[in-house]
Amino acid sequence: MSSSSYTSDEMMAVSASRALRDGQTCFVGIGLPSTAANLARATHAPGLVLIYESGTIGAKPGSLPLSIGDGILAQTADAVVSVPEIFNYWLQPGRIDIGFLGAAQIDKFGNINTTVIGGDYGKPKVRLPGAGGAPEIAASCREVIVVVRQTRRSFVERVDFVTSVGYGSGPGDREQLGLTGAGPQKIITDLGVLEPDPATLEFTLTGVYPGVSVAEVRARTGWDLAVAPGLAVIAPPSAAELAALHELQTRSAS
Amino acid sequence: MAQIVSLTEAVRLAVRDGDAVAMEGFTHLIPFAAGHEVIRQGRRDLTLIRMTPDVIYDQLIGAGCARKLIFSWGGNPGVGSLHRFRDAVENGWPVPLELEEHSHAGMANRYVAGASGLPFAVLRGYNGTGLAAAGSIRPISCPFTGETLTAVSALRPDVAIIHAQRADRLGNVQLWGITGVQKEAVLSSKRAVVTVEEIVDSLEPRADAVVLPAWTVSYVAPVPDGARPSYALGYSVRDNDYYATWDAISRDRDAFAAWLAEIR
Fold first, then answer.
1. Structural domains in chain B plus CATH codes
2. What interface predicted TM-score (ipTM) does this complex get?
């Protein structure tokens, strides 16, 4: 398959979908994470349990929802619970395997900012939507995977505002803060995959997509990105993966 | 006991200048028609409370109804920014907007505390985040284990406004599908307004429904399609195209002014 037969966003969605395993429970953020989670369910993980913060548990949408509360989520769910219940009974005790999040800005320790960029909090340059469910998803899911397009502006040394904690300032911070989940295990971008260095917890490049150079990834990272030994070249989307993604998108557009 | 009145009457009687107003509905059952009526009646200096301000509060903020916003996620779901909200925060237009910002878990628990008649709720949350500095968030020590948890202060709105599928002639209300935090919003508020798709002679019991007895509701107003562009499961579907269209209206002050002139 030639490299021009899929886009970098499609590669990212496929790559993110592969990070989910059949039978896992997954708390899904809207946008890129939702696309990837639904793709996983349509391909290798039909038993993936999708949980949205609107209170829909085990949603099985046949098309991609625009919001976390589209009717299709409630109509196909195993259970629909209230918003206090989804956070208190389901997320908080650590019942959910994977938190699947997006980000506006992310730093080398996987801390996420979706609140403000530039200026100060009271007079920001850019006011972003804010936290939503992300702080507690990042704190309490057993593991977290972040899906985000990679730019120098979005991948920074230190986020302007910590909305959701990754590894804080490094090893020991999550334990000290009493965060029960293991924290972010992967950042999946439109260039490749970053994973925390086991010793420093700093995100390092562990895989690139076909045709992407390390220099290109480093140029689109706002910190001095380390490259893991044995850097992988990630397999391009299979015909089946691309077909499933296109079908989801076609159904969603109609 | 609930009075069944027109939407105009319900808003006139229940919402006063300076009130803390919680319009809830988590993507589903958003009380848009009631929000438009608040704009029409020119209410000012409101403290608007809502987990997901969404397009409905973008409209109220742009119309200059709000002095303060208490919220946890202020975006246009699946589309992008709320530009009236951003203009108010970034530029103070049309009036400055004070923010009290939380996470969803925090907001949900603040309503639970209000509905429970407690001064605060306890959760595991906010540790290590920039949000933890807010005055309504405090560390608290568990009296049994000594573990440090987080307390959030109760929400006690002056008035809650929600939309539901139906009510009976006594004002008992029934809603189903994604019911979000509406029960807690109504039970934590001094007054409650419910707009409904229809008023029926008697409510057929549904196992999956939230029921708000008439004595927990102040005013019920029949407003068919009163959630549009949000939706009422079983009655309408979400108008996703409108959410995308709103982006262009909201982005530009003049386009918004034209929209506002039509609503008024």
1. 3-103+155-263 (3.40.1080.10), 111-153 (no CATH)
2. 0.96
